[in-house]
């Protein structure tokens, strides 16, 4: 057993023994910490993984708490019979609110969650059947058979058992295909480029977080046996968010450490500050706020980032030595039409960034797209991949019009890409980043991942990722976090990720930038091999020596206009190209140029 697993087993044993060796005065606070931890696990998923901030999680606790309170006190339902209903109602609320909220970004998302958090609080307080601000009392305790869990020690074990199951399920989820997709959500362009429906996946994360909050609310209702609006208002949601931030939203352990520190410090301040100052009042709120500010300044990644240095490290994800091959995408026959760009234009305000550009590409060739800085190459790249929409024109890929398709739909047709500015998840290993490229090659869902029923598929994906890393010369760096790689290695890692995608067309945006001379030669050899294997490559690059010795044909753009198209030798000698790069030529240009398609600038 690894040191980390031994540590986790020891921690579980200590938590299990705690209620039997600690005074009851310690068991009750630990129980409340467990209730908060369930909510914070969901907040780690939302905030630390999917980059969504919520000020409304306490409201979801309230939805489940009020659901079970009404069913047990007014309709005579048994306690456990209310659990699936309470969670289902919470999920329905989450789906309805999430569908309106998750498409928002930045402060709009924060304001959206704040708005419905306030709305639900006043809904709880103003519906007569819910008891108004006095709430509902005499809620029955949880019973197992004839035994009611009225002893705090028994309820402690139930709550922390569920916390452990939630931690295990979310850990399994994050170590899966869909978990890597979730970790890509902070960059929506990256996620969509590899087939992820970001809106749908954000909604899934949102609902999972609400589910955990609802579970906490259900437990709280039967532990306290009183439900009123106060614990489910915006203040409570802010407390939960503080807990997650204090613990560290980038680490699941922070979902336990944060509530523990939060509740301990707040209780200590409430008890000792009046004694130390000789004054009464809510001074602990001010003092606690100052402490949180100091903590955020000193440990912006949360306390878990500091504590984890002294804990056994997690074993890196490893690819199996062998696994059944994933199905491959059939490549189009060499020489057949692959990409047809017809009169494509893009206008930003009054600026024509791309102006009536047309070219085509055959299967099995490497086509270079070059031009001076600001020529419109990246804009054209974005138009081809669905990042930006066309103002006019058409684009066909293997006979299918794609100019109106979303990024993920274009990717699903077989268009893989890298980025001008490296788009990797820095805290994921090189192997995990490459494995994300195979996102569309798997199908296991959330529940399969949580239960580890996806391990056979995961082994196939990791094997593909390792093979592609070795293919590009990064096999020995599979365990290294992407953020610790040199820029040139990161660019090559992007190519490995794109190859794991199994594309029919590979779009490379300045892949040689940051590479040393030998690395460029190795990359050129790799791309040549890919061409020989039938892969089609569209390349944007500034290194002219690299391009000229590699590509079959070139398209040159300047100020958004195509000025030349042809083989490398003829383009190199083209006066229009020379003028675009050097700013002028000695002789005027009259008539068509040998070896080039005549183009009207």
UniProtKB/TrEMBL annotation:
GO molecular function, one term: ATP hydrolysis activity
Classification via PROSITE patterns: ABC_TRANSPORTER_1, ABC_TRANSPORTER_2
Keyword ATP-binding: yes
Protein's cellular compartments: Cell membrane
Main location, first listed in the record: membrane
Protein topology in the membrane: Multi-pass membrane protein
The keyword Nucleotide-binding appears for this protein: yes
Signal peptide limits: none
Transmembrane segments: 33-51, 83-102, 114-135, 155-174, 203-221, 241-262, 283-307
Keywords tagged on the record: ATP-binding, Cell membrane, Membrane, Nucleotide-binding, Transmembrane, Transmembrane helix, Transport
Recorded coiled-coil stretches: none
One Gene Ontology CC term in the entry: plasma membrane
Record-annotated ABC transporter domain positions: 339-584
CDD domains associated with the record: ABC_Mj1267_LivG_branched, TM_PBP1_LivM_like
Protein family (similarity comment): Belongs to the ABC transporter superfamily.
Name of the protein this chain belongs to: Branched-chain amino acid ABC transporter ATP-binding protein/permease
Organism (species): Microbaculum marinisediminis
Lineage: Bacteria, Pseudomonadati, Pseudomonadota, Alphaproteobacteria, Hyphomicrobiales
